[in-house]
Design brief:
homodimer, alpha/beta, seven-stranded mixed β-sheet, elongated, DNA-binding
DNA sequence: TTAGAATCGTCAACAAATTCACAAATGAAT
DNA sequence: ATTCATTTGTGAATTTGTTGACGATTCTAA
């Protein structure tokens, strides 16, 4: 599909295209153009055409893109045309809020287990899940062949848990802990830190 | 301070430097080097020196950087050497989890009010705050001269609330809603969407 | 006092990312 | 049937971002 690897910045924009296409579809639209997509995403139309061109030809000259078809192709490219099972580590306020969030399942990411190491949290019901002992993590990861994890533990525990996840074969970590993780090069980390966001924006105020 | 504007990618790395410096300080270290910072942040040492050089000369040849001093300078550059008041819009699971999170206040971001439009949520206590009617937002923003907001409402409500925030003079929005917002060019938006993160990483699996 | 190791700040070289601009194709309107 | 307004996909040009390399400085230790 991709002879020479497509760069990270391109891959990171594809989910935004997908999200906008879903939005347009809900509006009842069936076709769109790189220009319209660009305007609504605050990107240039050339950028969008170029990004898509790394993966194939999905549009029709003079007409634009069929929204449903382009969605389908993007899901295929991103490997989200199948469900993924995901484990959540940490049953604090954040971990629990994540389990209650419907947005993951809507996009095919099933949060199938939540773990914590605090005895008073183990056994607690969170949405449709029961908090499990972190000691049971290896078994669950192995049995369900989990490849993705959400890390929602305090900063001081994050690196230790990350090490464990990597050893268990997890290859993608969505990290909410405010710390840069050190992981093997075959493991991906996506960082979410709201404080970093506010600090970046404060610069411009 | 910055003759020709410093690019966004550079600004977005500064909080990571700051975060790492705080971490090192907790480890008891007092000085560091661009090389050490680079290794721990998975960046090149040249990158770090280059980034800092846009703002001045903070290191000492042969020695490196004084951690406390560099922290202080970075806080000054980012305008986080003062507290910022921030409002939270949306008192769902996410909004409530954010109010409970101590990480904002630790970095000088004070969540001073939380709003919702649902009658059954208004009046509810969340941490040290009481959920207020969204109708009271203009008054609070004006009285406390708020410039930053966290948007934690459902996707379908997000653009409407964002419009209101912009009209009220808010200049920085931390957006958790899974939608690309259209805002005036003088307003910054920092996007947090965990699903986008998982989708990006799924590409590599 | 001097030698040597470490490190910064910066200019130039290099690489990556974005934009430009246009041929080719499409569909609508006359 | 022909014209015209759109729109794609892409190679080239341009812009932006990263890395290399080195003079200058600092500290340590013999």
């Amino acid at each position: 599909m991709a002879a020479q690897p497509v760069s990270d910045v391109v891959i990171n924009r594809l989910p935004l295209y997908l999200r906008m296409l879903e939005f347009m579809q809900k509006e009842g639209k069936t076709i769109t153009s790189s220009q319209e997509l660009g305007e609504r995403l605050a990107l240039s139309s050339a950028q969008i055409r170029k990004d898509l061109s790394y993966f194939g030809e999905f549009g029709k000259q003079g007409t634009g893109y069929n929204i449903e078809y382009l969605q389908k192709m993007l899901r295929h490219i991103l490997h989200v045309d199948r469900p993924w099972d995901v484990v959540v580590i940490g049953a604090g306020d954040l971990g629990r809020a994540l389990v209650h969030y419907q947005g993951f399942a809507e996009q095919g990411f099933n949060l199938v287990a939540i773990f914590d190491n605090a005895p008073q949290k183990i056994g607690m019901t969170v949405g449709h899940l029961v908090v499990q002992n972190i000691a049971d993590l290896p078994q669950v990861v192995h049995e369900k062949q989990i490849e993705m994890a959400v890390l929602a533990v305090p900063a001081q525990a994050a690196q230790g848990v990350a090490n464990q996840l990597c050893e268990l074969g997890i290859r993608a970590i969505l990290n909410y802990a405010p710390i840069t993780l050190t992981v093997p090069s075959n493991v991906r980390v996506y960082y979410i830190d709201p404080v970093v966001g506010l600090q970046s924006m404060a610069y411009y105020l």
